[in-house]
Amino acid sequence: VAPNGAILLSVPMNDLEIELMQIVNDLVLKKDIRVLNTKITGWKNARKAEVIIEKISGVTLDDCALVSNIIDDVIKHNKSFVGLKDMSIEVSSPGINRGLYSIDDFKLFIGEKVIVKLKKSLDGLKNIKGVIVDVNTSDIILKTNKIEITVPYSQIQKANLNREIKV
User: Fold this and answer.
1) Which residue of 10, 61, 86, 116 is surrounded by the most CB atoms within 10 Å?
2) Can you tell me the distance from the alpha carbon of 4 to that of 73, in angstroms, rounded to the nearest whole number?
3) Whether pLDDT at 22 is above 60
4) Alpha helix positions (H), the chain
5) What pLDDT, on the 0 to 100 scale, is given for residue 13?
6) Tens of pLDDT, residues 101-145
């Protein structure tokens, strides 16, 4: 569960990543910034924190720098993150085809095209391209090829918006 109460997609986040996300979200909320996902990768001296943030008015370079500095301070001063002090930090916006990490994300994008990868096949489908028609507490309803498919939220491995860039 995210700090805002949203149920998180089963993106494999470990306890350390969740704790970092919660702490940073509490600190940046007043700036209208929200941490969508946190991932810590690497081994020992080559660790890296990858953090995706969003802001209703759009993420700026200054927003990324602010969050990066906050993460650096959290890592230096919080006992939970001992051993990560020399970790590199990468903060970015989610991009045009952003990932959907919670039920609330799906609700925000009702009517939008998405690509959903499932943990196991549903009606013979493992990957579904469709439009989000509706969202309830446990299911996402997608319309694809004139058929509505109810996808249990718990079966979603990964989901992204599927927007087209028109030139």
Assistant:
1) 116
2) 22
3) yes
4) 15-28, 61-77, 103-108
5) 66
6) 888 899 999 999 999 999 999 888 899 999 999 999 899 999 998
How far is it between the farthest Cα atoms of the chain? 54
Pair of tokens at residue 126: 């493992």
DSSP string spanning 74-133?
Answer: HHHH-GGGTT-TT-EEEEE---TT-B--BHHHHHHTTTSEEEEEEEEEETTEEEEEEEEE
Strand, coil or helix: 75: helix
Alpha-carbon 115 to chain mean position: 15
User: What is the spatial distance between Cα 80 and Cα 36, in angstroms, rounded to a whole number?
Assistant: 21
Q: Residue written as tokens 């996300």?
A: 21
Q: How far apart are CA 63 and CA 45, in angstroms?
A: 27
- Three-state DSSP state, 136: coil
For residue 71, which amino acid is it?
I
Cβ-based neighbour number of residue 31 at 10 Å: 13
E strand or H helix at 80: none
Please give the model's pTM, rounded to 2 decimal places. Answer: 0.73
Tokens of 83: 């051993």
Instruction: Tell me the C-alpha distance between 9 and 16, whole Å.
Output: 17
